[in-house]
Design brief:
By secondary structure, the chain is an alpha+beta fold. The protein has a domain at 54-161: Subtilisin Inhibitor (2-Layer Sandwich), CATH 3.30.350. It has 4 helices and 7 strands. The chain has helices at 2-20, 96-104, 106-114, 152-161, and strands spanning 35-39, 46-50, 59-67, 74-81, 85-88, 131-138, 141-148. A hairpin with a 6-residue loop joins strand 1 (35-39) and strand 2 (46-50). The longest helix has 19 residues, at 2-20. The radius of gyration is 24 Å and the shape is globular.
């Protein structure tokens, strides 16, 4: 009876060890299928990147629409996947690497994810009718915010905090 119990335990251990690691087609190497998925990329609308390769950028998928009453709207998408950065379509004044580096900055990330700080005191200056609507995700946090230039805080957000994410503002037109 003891030999049967020992054999049963050995079989359970063998099955458990075998189930812990998948192998590739050759059966030689473990397969690491850990991925980060963002909306909007492949045939199913998904962007997938190996999460085992961290890089200088956060994981972000943001859609940006910039409006100004005297110009056509500008719409683009910023995708950062740790070690890759893209802006589609290419947009004048917005570089992929600069945008993703800006998104890695905590001050910029907080503004996008948390919104305008409560009780923020702003100067009463007008920087023009430019407005940017930004939606998507940044490090798995939802982003749904508007940046405008109706006061000193909005001008600072546009020109300093999010300078790499937003194109230069057109400002006040005569």
């Amino acid at each position: 009876m003891g030999m049967i119990r020992t054999f049963a335990i050995a079989v359970v251990l063998l099955v458990t060890v075998a189930a812990c690691g998948e192998t590739d087609e050759t059966g030689d190497e473990p397969v690491d299928d850990a991925t980060t998925t963002l909306p909007g990329g492949d045939d199913d609308g998904e962007v997938t990147s190996p999460s085992a390769e961290p890089g200088p950028y956060p994981v972000a998928d943001l859609s940006v629409t910039v409006t100004h009453p005297d110009r056509d709207d500008i719409s683009y998408r910023i995708t950062c996947l740790g070690d890759t950065a893209t802006v589609e379509p290419p947009t004048e004044g917005v570089g992929a690497e600069t945008a993703c580096t800006t998104l890695a900055d905590q001050e910029a990330a907080d503004r996008l994810v948390l919104g305008v700080p409560k009780g923020q005191v702003c100067t009463e200056q007008y920087g023009g009718p430019d407005e940017a609507a930004i939606t998507g995700t940044l490090d798995e946090q939802p982003v749904d915010t508007v940046i405008d230039r109706t006061n000193g805080c909005g001008i600072d957000d546009w020109d300093r905090k999010l300078a790499g994410v937003l194109p230069p503002a057109l400002g006040v037109t005569d």
